[in-house]
Amino acid sequence: VEKTKPEEKDKNKNSSPEISLVVKGLMCLGYMFSSSLLTFLNKMIYTKFGLKSPLILFLVQCLWNFMVCSMLMSYKTFVDQKAFTSVEKYGIRITRIDETLGKAKVGCMLACMFLIQVLFGLYSVKLVNIPLFLTFRRCCILATIVVQFAVQGTVPNQTLMLSTTLIVLGSVVAGYESFNTDFFGYFLIWCNNFATAIQTVMTSKYNEDKRVTPFEVNFYFAALGLPLMVFITAQTGDLKILYDIFFN
What pTM, to 2 d.p., does this model score? Predict the structure, then answer.
């Protein structure tokens, strides 16, 4: 007896590898700690090396990302096309060079939004202290609600609105005393929040089928940002400062 389509669908669903709740929780915690650690490291680098322009830090990030992504893709393309398959069940899919280049249009669009978000983040970290930065970054949920309503017409439920209101009120109380001195820094954080929200909503819209992987977005982010930052820092003189830090 031939199997019906629903039965086949259930079979495929059951045969696909499932990630346990513990692993999902650990990955979320890892993302949370790595994100916070990156914020602390950025602030420490500003203080230790006396960097005045976040563009220097952005240039180094793009260079490192481009090198790592290129090496991984080159290995999978020219050495072993079955490499890194063990991490795919965790959502980490490293693609070949030809496969990545075939998604250039969507990849570049998503990477451009990512570039804007990171730039706002680097400048805002430089202007405000870390606790307030992390506090106002939590208000990204409000920016996401606004963008989703504007783009998709999604109306949040009462529970989400209540939790969002409490988060925003907490942020206002935390930063009230320094609004006058750090106003521009707070403005950049909110720009970062809305840039993140727009990136999230646009990604769900144009990459709903997950055709472009996070790895490929990261590669295009570095590929677009690296030449742009080299040109800008060369014009502003920041490239020479970076050279002096490494070689003098």
Answer: 0.73
